[in-house]
């Protein structure tokens, strides 16, 4: 049907303006089986529930999606206001599907600026984590994993030397891959075997997301050059496929390698901090996204950001060595509780 026929469609508009209210979010970090840190953030927010416009006709197709401008002619007052909102953002079909973004107001009265994460995804990192822990390679597989990571470090050291901002940004493009691959493969396994994953799918996807937020932060600090973008493209193509195959063949080896990669990440960020301390890298103001994601003070600096990212890496190290240890004991991941929300 080429044209939208109003006679065949019934338009329902529901507008639900909720009153402003205050929510308190609690973020807890589990460290060594105990709640290490609790933080709360009160966020005044309100959201406009979307206008739902439903068409009873089952023949509705994309060509029948009405132009919101034409709909405005048939609505008035508050309804008009709702339909105007998506137009402001350039999204013209969200009012049709009822998919409207929540409008969140921060404590300082400004609008929550991020679409990539919400206030309840933010957390205060556990900086008390032991950064010096190291898994001593014992088995043959451990030694292979350890040597592999040490070998990978050689070209990285040659290419980046002490340009730690650039180095961190580039390495985060790799670091966010293993969690996603592991989560994906465990997801498929859960479907294939009709069984729960023990929370490990979510835990690994959380890790991937956390790593990606490291990247989103570092890219605010260092702008990648064209040849660095090209390098990321090549490295991602190789690393994703190599890690995918490795995880299919030996998840315990895959997690062990990531555990050692995280140990190297801690080392790199420690060197980064040294250069910030001695002034060879300027200690600029923290990017706004980092302040909101890690709930840092408004006057936070790059040094604070690197410190919290390093703490995240230490958590990833523990999770991946733990995952490998479980499998080295001949057990499946689902047999041990997954460390959800462990940053
Ligand atoms: Fe990272
Ligand atoms: Fe990491």
UniProtKB/TrEMBL annotation:
Transmembrane spans: 169-188, 230-249
The record lists the catalysed reaction(s) as: 2 a ubiquinol + O2 = 2 a ubiquinone + 2 H2O
Q: Where in the cell is it found?
A: Mitochondrion inner membrane
Q: Where is it predominantly found? A: mitochondrion
Q: Which cofactor does it need?
A: Fe cation
Q: Name one GO molecular function term.
A: superoxide-generating NADPH oxidase activity
**EC number(s) from the headed UniProt entry:** 1.10.3.11
**Biological process, per Gene Ontology:** alternative respiration
A Pfam family of this chain: AOX
Q: Which InterPro entries does the entry link to?
A: AOX, AOX_sf
Q: Indicate how the chain sits in the lipid bilayer.
A: Multi-pass membrane protein
| Key words of the record | Electron transport, Iron, Membrane, Metal-binding, Mitochondrion, Mitochondrion inner membrane, Oxidoreductase, Respiratory chain, Transit peptide, Transmembrane, Transmembrane helix, Transport
Q: How is the cofactor bound?
A: Binds 2 iron ions per subunit.
Does the UniProt entry include the keyword Transit peptide? yes
The record's comment on protein family reads: Belongs to the alternative oxidase family.
List the protein's name.
Answer: Ubiquinol oxidase
Name the source organism: Amborella trichopoda
The lineage, from the top, is: Eukaryota, Viridiplantae, Streptophyta, Embryophyta, Tracheophyta
């Amino acid at each position: 049907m080429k044209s939208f026929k109003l006679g065949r469609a019934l338009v329902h508009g529901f507008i639900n303006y909720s009153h402003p209210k205050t929510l308190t979010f609690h973020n807890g970090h589990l460290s060594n089986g105990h709640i290490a840190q609790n933080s709360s953030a009160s966020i005044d927010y309100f959201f406009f529930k979307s206008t739902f416009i439903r068409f009873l006709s089952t023949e509705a197709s994309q060509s029948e999606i009405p132009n919101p401008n034409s709909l405005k002619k048939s609505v008035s007052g508050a309804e008009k206001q709702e339909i105007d909102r998506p137009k402001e953002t350039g999204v013209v079909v969200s009012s049709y599907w009822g998919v409207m973004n929540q409008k969140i107001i921060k404590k300082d009265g400004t609008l929550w600026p991020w679409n990539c994460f919400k206030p309840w995804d933010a957390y205060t990192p556990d900086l008390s984590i032991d950064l010096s822990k190291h898994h001593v390679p014992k088995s043959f597989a451990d030694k292979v994993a350890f040597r592999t990571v040490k070998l990978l470090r050689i070209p990285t050291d040659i290419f980046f030397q002490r340009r730690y901002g650039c180095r961190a940004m580039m390495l985060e493009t790799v670091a966010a891959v293993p969690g996603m691959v592991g989560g994906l493969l465990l997801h498929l396994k859960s479907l294939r075997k009709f069984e729960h994953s023990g929370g490990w799918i979510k835990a690994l996807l959380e890790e991937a997301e956390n790593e990606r937020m490291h990247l989103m932060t570092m890219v605010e600090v260092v702008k990648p050059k064209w040849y660095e973008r090209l390098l990321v493209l090549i490295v991602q193509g190789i690393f994703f496929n190599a890690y995918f195959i490795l995880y299919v063949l030996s998840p315990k080896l895959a997690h062990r390698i990531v555990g050692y990669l995280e140990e190297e990440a801690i080392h790199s960020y420690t060197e980064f901090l040294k250069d910030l301390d001695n002034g060879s890298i300027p200690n600029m103001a923290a990017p706004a996204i980092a302040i909101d994601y890690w709930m840092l003070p408004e006057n936070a600096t790059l040094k604070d950001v690197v410190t919290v990212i390093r703490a995240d890496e230490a958590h990833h190290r523990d999770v991946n060595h733990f995952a490998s240890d479980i499998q080295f004991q001949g057990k499946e991941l689902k047999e041990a509780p997954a460390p959800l929300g462990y940053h």
